[in-house]
Write a structure and sequence with these properties.
With 414 residues, the chain is α+β, with helices and mostly antiparallel strands. The protein is built from eight helices and 20 strands. It has two domains: 101 residues, Immunoglobulins (Immunoglobulin-like, Sandwich); 249 residues, Rossmann fold (3-Layer(aba) Sandwich). The longest helix has 13 residues.
Length: 414
């Protein structure tokens, strides 16, 4: 029946009734291709570029190359060649798609039926994705006036689905508020209650020292990620990371990087110029796709950018964290973490420990029409809030449900 039988067999076991099983079906396994799993967010913003992992299994087609096709309402969105390895070994195919139309979209991932297949229905898998056309709020708290604020705002100004609310400290207990909804929003400075902070989907921390926050606020920032499921992005600066006194705080615990670094600066402030390069994962990650080309062209784009600088010596990831960009000299571009992340509780934490990404917009070698900086920040912030749950959400345990099957729903209140 395909259902667990342990509970049904208990009365027979208690009565010492013997049970004999009879196998049904063919004794020889026939060749088969199966789209086993599709890893894609259940909800995304319209206009988001997604890199979807699709697990394809096979039996009897070693070394064969097939096409993985993605369709939306019968229209082909994308396709990717998949080459099978040894018999029975699943293959992870990465396919890039654009969510151009809003509303519930039933996406179909399929591999054409191969010669010799007797089961055809498992060659395709359908996934429902809710493409949302709404404006999502991100709070950007910056501890000092600097160019990053201006250019981040400029980068997302034309993205109707991102609202970056800026709180910038201009002097002690004085703040500049930008793009707030009303006069009450952030009127008292950085949120002091969970209710006030948790209304945002993302939080960006700039160059602001840990001592600015109360212990309750530091805990609240960590809970914003682990319990609310929000996205936290920590930028570099003279008052960020270890230089900002975050060692031993709840925020440090949430970071994907280690703050202890063995580079001796002999008491002098740390400063390093960085040429950036994508990691292997960064070549295919949605946040770091600067163009629509292949991996080699994406690498060339990143490595052609002018150098940026950092004041935060960070070179080591925590276990389970993923690096997307690294930086250093032209001889060794892997000395410094430039972009990394990990899951923390229900949410994610991203670090970008550089202080001047705006150089990718304003450097003399960058053409006026170049959109690299804008593209990077729009994709980064869309990814920051990707998958952040609503305050009240419900989901089923299984992606695939048969007619008449009982479905268990789990509701979460953030």
């Amino acid at each position: 029946s395909g259902e667990p039988l342990a509970e049904s067999l208990l009365p027979l076991q208690a009565a010492n009734v013997p049970v004999y099983t009879v196998g049904l079906g063919e004794e020889i396994l026939t060749p088969d291709v199966q789209v086993s799993r599709v890893e894609i967010p259940r909800s995304v913003l319209v206009g988001t570029s997604l890199v979807v992992d699709v697990i394809v299994s096979h039996r009897g087609y070693s070394d064969r190359t097939v096409s993985l096709v993605v369709e939306d309402a019968g229209q082909i969105m994308a396709s990717e060649d998949v080459t099978f390895q040894g018999d029975g070994e699943p293959v992870v195919a990465r396919v890039r798609i654009e969510t151009t139309e809003s509303g519930p979209r039933l996406l179909r991932f399929r591999v054409p039926v191969q010669d010799g297949e007797s089961v055809e229905r498992n060659n395709a898998r359908e996934v429902l994705v809710d493409v949302v056309d709404e404006s999502e709020k991100i709070l950007y708290f910056e501890g000092e006036p600097r160019w990053e604020v201006k250019f981040v705002r400029r980068a997302v100004a034309e993205d109707e689905n991102l609202q970056v609310v800026v709180l910038q400290r201009t002097a002690e207990n004085k703040f500049l508020r930008l793009d707030v909804d009303d006069a009450e929003e952030l009127a008292a400075g950085f949120p002091k209650t969970r209710e006030e902070l948790f209304r945002y989907r993302g939080l960006i921390l700039g160059s602001v020292e840990a001592s600015f926050f109360t212990h309750d606020q530091l805990n609240m920032i960590a809970d914003f990620v682990s319990q609310r499921g929000g996205g936290l992005l920590v930028l570099g600066g003279r008052n960020a990371f270890a230089e900002g006194g975050y060692e031993g705080t709840p925020v440090e615990e949430a970071l994907p990087v280690l703050l202890d670094d063995d580079r001796n600066t002999e008491g002098n402030p740390y400063f390093e110029e960085l040429l950036v390069s994508p990691t292997r994962t960064g070549l295919t990650h949605p946040a770091t796709q600067l163009g629509g080309g292949d991996s080699e062209s994406i690498r060339e784009l990143w490595e052609s950018l002018p150098p940026v600088t950092t004041l935060n010596p960070i070179s080591r990831l925590k276990p389970g964290a993923t690096g997307l960009l690294t930086g250093g000299t032209d001889q060794d571009r892997s000395r410094q973490v430039v972009l990394a992340y990990h899951r923390y509780g229900r949410g994610k934490v991203i670090v970008l420990p550089i202080q001047d990404s705006w150089i990718w917009q304003m450097h003399a070698d960058i053409p006026l029409e170049d959109q690299t900086h804008e593209t990077f920040w729009r994709q980064l912030l869309r990814w920051l809030i990707d998958g952040v749950p609503d305050p009240i959400s419900a989901q089923s345990e299984s992606e695939l449900v048969e007619p008449g099957q009982v479905v268990k729903l789990t509701a979460e209140v953030g």
